[in-house]
Design goal:
Elements: H1 59-64, H2 95-112, H3 121-136, H4 146-160, E1 163-164, E2 171-172, H5 174-189, H6 191-198, H7 202-209, H8 221-237, H9 253-262, H10 264-268, H11 295-301, H12 315-322, H13 335-343, H14 346-360, H15 364-388, H16 390-396, E3 402-407, E4 410-415, E5 424-427, E6 436-448, H17 450-453, E7 459-460, E8 481-482, E9 487-499, H18 505-515, H19 522-551, H20 556-570, H21 575-592, E10 595-597, H22 602-607, E11 611-615, H23 616-620, E12 626-632, E13 637-641, E14 650-653, H24 659-664, E15 682-683, H25 693-704, E16 709-712, E17 720-723, H26 726-738, H27 742-749, E18 751-757, E19 765-772, E20 787-794, H28 796-800, E21 803-806, H29 826-832, E22 836-837, H30 840-855, E23 859-869, H31 870-879, H32 882-885, E24 889-898, H33 905-914, E25 918-922, H34 927-937, E26 947-949, H35 950-955, H36 958-962, E27 970-972, H37 976-988, E28 993-997, H38 1003-1008, E29 1011-1015, H39 1021-1026, E30 1029-1031, H40 1036-1076, H41 1085-1103, H42 1127-1152, H43 1162-1183, H44 1191-1194, H45 1200-1218, H46 1222-1226, H47 1234-1270
Helix pairs in contact: 2-3, 2-4, 3-5, 4-5, 4-6, 5-6, 5-8, 13-15, 14-15, 19-20, 19-40, 20-41, 21-40, 25-26, 25-29, 40-41, 40-42, 40-43, 41-43, 41-45, 42-43, 42-47, 43-45, 43-47
Length: 1288
């Protein structure tokens, strides 16, 4: 958006000391400052109250903003340049709070800009520039909120590296330059921003700032001045950045050095450098791994020495700043406390009260049974909690008591708690590493890092500096680091302490696990709520019956006995037992499906899951890279079928479009428009005499320019054993599929390796030098013996910027056709090594090709080659300079690699969506690759298409993340810390979340999730201990089967509760009605208890093993927070209870009137009522096989356990009538013709329940529809929008 004096500014601030003059300053740190308006003060505002117009680029945000106004002293609102009124503001804020609010809006906009077409990146950055120029610069605001500055820094760094142009000629964009300028200005002005920058590593800043891109010969003056200013600020104000070479890629040191010489006076003279406010306290290097720093420079940074260690005098000061090297002690609940927690569980208390009631009514046998159930429940619950705390107990043993350290050149043994960053630690075989170290000396050092990575084989260590784009390097790749609590397997070494205590890798994990509270599972919350409701109901009914009886002048003792009996009827004695058994049986079934359940209640929780957050690699995908396609410089297109080691796979060739034709219309012949791979594919020959020369050349680079190996292994499931980096393994396999392996080139062709320059993230390439051995047996199948070949692979941008030519199509000697494929000419072709000049047109074509392949989710690598005389190769090797080898390259082609989706995952994702469960992919991979895989799996579709990068996730608060609509379904380039943030955000919106993970860094998020799922094959032990469920096969398909089991468990628990409460409520309604109409109660106390025993427990237990309903995975999950008893369930319970109670009451009253033969005495009438109600309750078990489906749909024979339970309970009931001794004890007698009345009651029951279920099915349908409508619009529980607080 343009800014000038003739148009209305887009970003306005008006206060009591500023005018509405627009910003005309340039974007250079070294440029003259913009003129301060006449009514302003360089010292800051003279009045604390301000008038603030909306500083936002988001139109919707601006509409929703609150308006502020000056105090009454201001009589008129300011005007815009065009005469329009400026909206007044009615709330007064102080200067700092308003600035922080403005900046926070812009930070959020920086994250949202990719998903909002209402504003541009330039708009947002211009807004920030306006805030900087008129509210912060000249020392007006020295301090701002630290968290906000951290997020602002990350947001700016995310945009400073943007470039435009082809892969060969890239330059910073205008927006990137503005972000770069703002970075320097905030660095100069705001203390908290400087502290935020101090937490970054040199590698982070090197990759994000792109300083070399602004000091090229063709860079503008403003770009060069800004680069010089920021380089000076970083090297003079931060001890960890004092060496400017660490902020610039090695191959671009010359450009940066020229820049420093150009502005030498400013670097040498403090007066010429930007003035920064003084820092009141010492600046200590932040705790970090520093794998990208040279050990000598690192030791110097901490004031140490790699030979003498720290001076003893500096230790107290460092210890005071960094704190002791000790892990936070995790809470360790005592056994008695865990037992007390189980005993005081509400459902257990209910059972104890029921047992007391049984004792009070002189029935010790029933009381004993209840107490046995109590003991079993306590034992099971205690054992589960004990297992859940094993992760914490494991952390207790992780401390290292002693450490060998060198201080002032003297080696001694000290308490490891006294270690500080900068200490020089000595490691010997068998030692436990006492802190996180940056190794500075190694001798055959191997360290076992199983506690962190799960790998039981010792990791070989080195002192080599690792150049990566991020400081969040996977632990297994940190070859120059040693981590606290890991063990030296062999060798010895020395290392500089870089992180201690809570800052160490194991310390961060320990703190995260111990600080995460253990949440109750949904079923625990629901049963607790149900139990509390039942307690109040039992007390209420007991009091009500007693009051009614006393009103009718009945004896108070009799009424107390009846009241207690009714209270016992309300209490579902078998609830805890049935829930436990149901879950235990589900655990057994899940174990057969490779899902090991560690915490029993998590089985049910899975059924309520609304979101599954899953890793990509190894869970959704195979976890193994494979070659997908190859495009060579002659415009040939190849695809790999079944890219496996051995002869199983093949390379397919598409019809080649002549290169001249492709260059004449690049958009048509690149990307998705090039569909040659879909038709007319032919199998390439695996004979070097018949195979295309470019394919053989690409195979040579693929096979030789790597250090991985793939060998036959009879013990491996695949028959092959792969060793090395997964990407290089994929390249080796690709060469094997093509038929031209490393063994072929070295043994058959006779190539010999002369040297290698390993891959690093600065160059982004790897190169090797090979030469032909002399004396090959087949002279026509060998390369030039007087030449050597430099083979190069790497990122397309890294390779292309070093290419001066490309390998053109082969020329057919017979027809002189330069567009011929040239089969059989590999050796002749490579010996002649023709090369065509790399034109801009051809460079653009390569860029289009690379982008098209990346858009398909492929990891794209470029191949290049260079032929040099053998003498030059010797000189290049001797020079040990990478640039000598990796220049003047000839481009060869692009290969696309992919980690393919696992079989069946796409179908499982579809099942999840059908079940109303959203799958969220969380990966450390690039966003393009992740999105492509997610789209292939159906995770990303037309509705759910929002994706987010980890760096964007860092910039917003949990509340802002929770408020995103729709919620992202792909998170790429995330750190383990991001996972915890995602889980918390989803839970704040009242969703139930399942989280998968394998590394120890995933443990906090797994513990926080409603259901934590660890990988059994690739997962670490601590991760498994923190998880609720462990997948033995690391397969996503197992998760959806576990969800099925979880829903089945809850369904069965719900059916059991509905059945049990229907039966018990029928007794309550029957007793209340009889008491209300002053009729003799139909049951004695012992008959109530006998009915509860035979009609409650066996049928209810059989409902616990009820098979899953057919629609278990085609309906949405329950509303999170929804109780077991929904209004629909309460309606079902009341209807079924009324049917049973009213039918029994009718039979009882008819018998009392003499209408039923053989039921003339009170004992006979009570026996008939008992037979009627108990039989109806037993029949109700079949009707309860589904709450909504008809019994004619579910049937009665599918659940064999229920048939057996019905027969058992019915026999026990008959024994109560006819078994001598038992019938006298129960007060029951032969019913006789009363069974006819019982049969009529059952028929009426079936008819009325089926009518009721018609209404239930309609209600459930409405509930499901309402869930679907609300699925993406549930509001977070915390309404606070922003995640930071003002420092005021």
């Amino acid at each position: 958006m343009a800014h000038n004096n003739q148009s209305e500014p887009a970003f306005l601030i008006a206060n009591d000391h500023e005018s509405s003059t627009t910003d005309t300053a340039t974007n250079s740190v070294f440029q003259a400052e913009p003129a301060v308006p006449a009514n302003s003060s360089a010292q800051g505002p003279s009045h604390p109250d301000i008038q603030l117009d909306v500083i936002t680029t988001n139109p919707k945000e601006k509409e929703n903003m609150v308006s502020f106004a000056l105090p009454s002293a201001t009589s008129a609102a300011p005007k815009h340049n065009d005469g329009g009124d400026m909206r007044s503001m009615s709330v007064k804020l102080d200067g700092q709070a308003s600035i922080e609010h403005q900046i926070d809006i812009h930070v959020v906009d920086l994250v949202e800009v990719a998903n909002n077409s209402g504003f541009t990146l330039a708009d947002i950055l211009e807004g920030l520039k306006y805030v900087m120029d008129y509210r912060i610069r000249h020392g007006k605001m020295l301090h701002l909120n630290a968290d906000l500055m951290m997020r602002l820094m990350e947001a700016l760094l995310m945009n400073t590296g943007h470039e435009t142009g082809s892969l060969m000629k890239k330059k910073p964009t205008a927006d990137a330059d503005l972000a770069f300028t703002l970075f320097g200005e905030f660095l100069e002005e705001v203390e908290e921003f400087r502290r935020a920058v101090g937490t970054k590593s040199a590698t982070d800043l090197r990759q994000s700032l792109n300083i070399p891109g602004r000091c090229q010969p063709n860079s503008t003056k403003e770009q060069r001045e800004d680069a010089a200013a920021i380089l000076n600020l970083l090297t003079t104000r931060f001890v960890q950045f004092e060496d400017w070479r660490e902020l610039v890629r090695p191959d671009e040191h010359d450009d940066a050095e020229a820049l420093i010489k150009e502005y030498a006076p400013r670097f040498a003279n403090a007066a010429g450098a930007p003035i920064m406010p003084p820092v009141d306290e010492d600046i200590f290097p932040p705790p970090a791994l520093y794998f990208d720093k040279n050990s000598e420079k690192l030791a110097h940074m901490f004031g140490s020495d790699i030979h003498k260690g720290l001076p003893e005098s500096s230790v107290p000061k460092l210890l005071a700043h960094y704190g002791p090297n000790a892990l936070p002690p995790p809470p360790k609940p005592s056994i008695l406390k865990m037992l007390w927690t189980q005993v005081t569980d509400l459902m257990v208390i209910i059972l104890i009260l029921a047992a007391i009631a049984e004792f009070a009514m002189n029935d010790p046998r029933a009381a004993t049974v209840l107490l046995i159930v109590v003991v079993l429940n306590v034992i099971i619950g205690f054992s589960q909690e004990f297992k859940a705390n094993r992760a914490l107990e494991a952390l207790l043993t992780l401390s290292v008591p002693k450490a060998t350290v060198i201080r002032d050149g003297i080696q001694s043994i000290v308490d490891s708690k006294e270690l500080v960053p900068g200490d020089l630690v000595v490691l010997e075989e068998g030692d436990a590493v006492p802190a996180d170290l940056r190794l500075c000396e190694v001798s055959q050092l191997d360290i076992i890092e199983a506690i962190l990575t799960g790998e039981t084989v010792g990791a070989e260590k080195s002192i080599r500096t690792i150049r990566k784009r991020t400081r969040k390097l996977p632990l297994g790749d940190c070859k120059g680091s040693a981590f606290m609590t890991t063990v030296v397997a062999r060798g010895r070494g020395k290392g500089i302490v870089v992180r201690t205590g809570e800052s160490t890798e194991i310390g961060r994990i320990s703190k995260a696990i111990t600080s995460t509270k253990t949440e109750q599972t949904p079923i625990q919350k629901k049963l607790q709520s149900l139990g509390l409701w039942l307690v109040f109901l039992s007390v209420f009914l007991c009091i009500l019956v007693i009051i009614i009886g006393l009103a009718y002048k009945r004896p108070i003792k009799d009424m107390l006995e009846v009241g207690i009996s009714l209270a016992v009827s309300v209490i579902p004695e078998g609830l805890v037992a049935v829930v436990t058994v149901t879950m235990a049986l589900a655990v057994s079934r899940m174990a057969k499906r490779n899902a090991i359940v560690r915490k029993l209640p998590s089985v049910e929780t899975l059924g309520s899951v609304t979101h599954i957050c899953s890793d990509k690699t190894g869970t959704l995908t195979e976890g193994k890279m494979g070659a997908s396609g190859l495009w060579t410089s002659d415009n040939s297109l190849y695809t790999f079928s079944h890219p496996k080691a051995g002869a199983e796979g093949a390379v397919l060739i598409a019809d080649r479009t002549p290169l001249a034709v492709a260059l004449s219309d690049i958009p048509t012949h690149s990307g998705i428009h090039d569909d040659r791979h879909k038709t007319n594919m032919k199998t390439a020959s695996k004979s070097v005499t018949d195979a295309p020369a470019h394919l053989v050349a690409a195979s040579m680079v693929s096979a030789l320019c790597c250090n991985a190996s793939v060998e036959k292994d009879a013990d491996s499931p695949t028959g092959f054993k792969a060793t090395g980096d997964p990407t290089e393994v994929a390249l080796v396999v690709a060469s094997q599929v093509a038929g031209f392996t490393k063994s072929y080139f070295e043994n058959t062709v006779g190539l010999e390796k002369l040297g290698e320059y390993a891959f690093d993230s600065d160059r982004k390439i790897m190169s090797v030098l090979y030469a032909q051995k002399s004396g090959s047996s087949s002279s026509n199948l060998q390369l030039d013996t007087n030449a050597s070949f430099i083979l190069v692979k790497g990122a397309p941008e890294g390779v292309l910027r070093r290419c001066k030519s490309y390998l053109p199509p082969c020329r057919d000697e017979a027809t002189d056709d330069s567009e011929a494929r040239g089969n059989g000419s590999f050796f002749d072709y490579m010996n002649k090594m023709p090369a065509a000049e790399m034109s801009d047109e051809y460079g653009n074509y390569i860029s289009e090709r690379a982008e098209a392949m990346a858009g398909q989710g492929l990891r794209v690598l470029a191949f290049a080659i260079r032929k040099v005389p053998l003498a030059d190769a010797t000189r290049i090797i001797a020079s040990k300079k990478q640039a000598e080898a990796e220049s003047n390259l000839t481009f060869l082609g692009l290969i696309g690699l992919i980690d393919p989706p696992k079989a069946g995952v796409k179908e499982s994702v579809a099942k999840c969506k059908g079940a109303g469960v959203k799958v969220i992919m969380i990966t450390g991979d690039h966003i393009t690759t992740a999105t492509s895989i997610a789209r292939q799996l159906g995770i990303v579709d037309d509705v759910d298409n929002r994706v987010m990068k980890g760096v964007e996730l860092d910039l917003i608060s949990e509340d802002a993340l929770a408020d995103l609509k729709p919620f992202p379904v792909v998170f790429a380039r995330v750190s383990p810390d991001n996972k915890l943030k995602i889980v918390t955000a989803l839970q704040s919106r009242r969703y139930a979340v399942a989280m998968t993970g394998d590394g120890v860094n995933d443990a906090p998020a797994i513990k926080k999730a409603d259901v934590g799922i660890a990988m059994g094959i690739g997962g670490t032990e601590i991760t498994k201990q923190a998880a609720d469920i462990v997948l033995a096969d690391d397969d996503f398909n197992t998760i959806i089967e576990a969800v099925r089991e979880g829903r089945q468990v809850f369904d069965n628990i719900k059916k059991f509760i509905v059945y049990l409460l229907s039966c018990n409520s029928a007794e309550i309604f029957l007793f209340l009605t009889c008491a209300s109409i002053n009729v003799e109660l139909p049951f004695t106390t012992i008959q109530i208890l006998w009915a509860n025993i035979i009609a409650d427990i066996p049928p209810a237990m059989s409902l616990g093993v009820e098979p899953a309903e057919k629609n278990v995975l085609t309906r949405p999950p329950r509303f999170p927070g929804q109780g077991v008893l929904t209004p629909t369930m309460v309606f079902v319970i009341i209807c079924q209870a009324l049917i049973q109670s009213m039918a029994t009451l009718a039979v009882y009253l008819i018998a009392q009137k003499g209408g039923i033969r053989d039921a003339y005495t009170l004992e006979a009438q009570r026996s008939l009522a008992f037979a009627n109600l108990t039989t109806m309750q037993l029949c109700q078990s079949f009707l309860s096989r589904s709450v909504e489906l008809s019994v004619f749909t579910t049937g009665i024979l599918e659940n064999k356990f229920m048939v057996g339970a019905f027969i058992l309970s019915f026999i026990l009931m008959i024994m109560g009538f006819y078994l001598p001794g038992l019938n006298e004890w129960l007060g029951l007698q032969n019913v006789g013709y009363g069974w006819v009345a019982v049969l009529v009651s059952v028929v009426i029951q079936v008819v009325l329940v089926e009518v009721m279920k018609l209404a239930v099915r309609a209600a459930v349908k409405r509930e499901n529809a309402s869930y679907n409508q609300d699925y993406h619009s549930r509001q977070p529980t915390n309404k606070k929008k922003w995640g930071w607080k003002s420092s005021n």
